[in-house]
Design goal:
The chain is mainly β. The chain folds into two domains: 46 residues, no CATH class; 81 residues, Jelly Rolls (Sandwich). It has one helix and ten strands, in the order E-E-H-E-E-E-E-E-E-E-E. A six-stranded antiparallel beta sheet has the order 5-10-6-9-7-8, with no helix packed on it. Strands 1-2 form a two-stranded antiparallel sheet. A two-stranded antiparallel ribbon has the order 3-4. The longest helix is centred in the first third of the chain and has 7 residues.
């Protein structure tokens, strides 16, 4: 027998949980209620039960450990330097070990209006890209360390 949600607030008094309902067949009001109990999986195109522990707390899973990494040492100057990896990486740490500020952009041209990392500063972000563009102000240089994780 299929498990059912029973609640007087539903336009349908019973909403079966199995077989899983498709995203298109659920009314907007029902979607709002189900969103507290189930999560939509775009990959599988179905609603999935949200897991909770024995006290009712939501169980979450973090991404696994990094399986691949790339380390680059970049000499930045007042001419844009482009460092491109073979594939996209999802987590990055960029450290400016130089005496001057460096400006960075991801998969696009860097200018002195781009994101500024001051001397001795670092940037940590979860963003998928494979190309780091760096530049310094006129006559300045910096050494940039880029750790990319996947």
């Amino acid at each position: 027998m299929a498990q059912k949600i029973q609640d007087s607030k539903f336009s349908q008094r019973e909403v079966p949980l199995e077989p899983f309902l498709t995203f298109e067949t659920i009314e907007e009001v029902v979607k709002k209620v189900l969103s507290h109990l189930m999560g939509w999986n775009d990959t599988d195109q179905r609603w999935m039960k949200i897991r909770v522990d024995s006290s009712g707390r939501l169980m979450t899973a973090a991404p696994g450990l990094a399986t691949k990494h790339a380390i680059n040492v970049i000499s930045a100057s007042d001419t844009e330097t482009i460092t491109t990896l073979a594939e996209n990486y999802t987590s990055h740490i960029i450290y400016n070990d130089g005496p001057n500020a460096v400006y960075v952009n991801f998969d696009d041209t860097a200018t002195t209006s781009s994101f500024k990392i001051p001397a001795g500063g670092s940037l940590s972000l979860d963003l998928e890209f494979k190309s780091l563009h760096t530049i310094c102000a006129a006559t300045e240089t910096a050494t940039v360390y880029w750790l990319a994780l996947k």
